[in-house]
């Protein structure tokens, strides 16, 4: 081996990986999964997603149904329109290494999404973080399609805390929700 390579003091250290944005996020302390069940509405989202920046003007009202199939996972059914047809997208958030943290496994390599329930009062609003790779998004859900100004303020504090801003924040329509989808419009 060339002199100094892999020997003692001259050895170069690999830099430690940068901390993931989600590692800085604290999960809701008194999170009750059973109280998260039921219907929620997607009120707002902050994300640097290029699709949102290009198509944010075409957002559709989105409703979500949450169940707890095994006492620890979240089964999420998302109902939204696409080209005027109601679709249901089914996902399962598996418990991760800590309370309030979940893992959404997608199809293919690198398609996992880390999810953290950042804050909720269980009865009117919930703020969730989603991270895929190094990209982070924050979503505000409400038990109704409109939430209090206080909940919106909290949401905006959360998005700023992870380096997002108003220019990448989108609010969803408060009308035109789907309640179901036929068997031909369900994605698992």
Automatic annotation (TrEMBL):
UniProt superkingdom: Eukaryota
Subcellular location field: Secreted
KW RNA-binding (keyword) present: no
A GO MF term: complement binding
Residues covered by region (Disordered): 1-22
Keywords assigned by UniProt, alphabetized: Disulfide bond, Secreted, Signal
PROSITE patterns: LIPOCALIN
Any single biological process term in GO: complement activation
GO cellular component: blood microparticle; extracellular exosome; membrane attack complex
The Lipocalin/cytosolic fatty-acid binding domain, residue ranges: 37-171
Similarity field: Belongs to the calycin superfamily. Lipocalin family.
Name of the protein this chain belongs to: CO8G protein
Gene this chain is encoded by: C8g
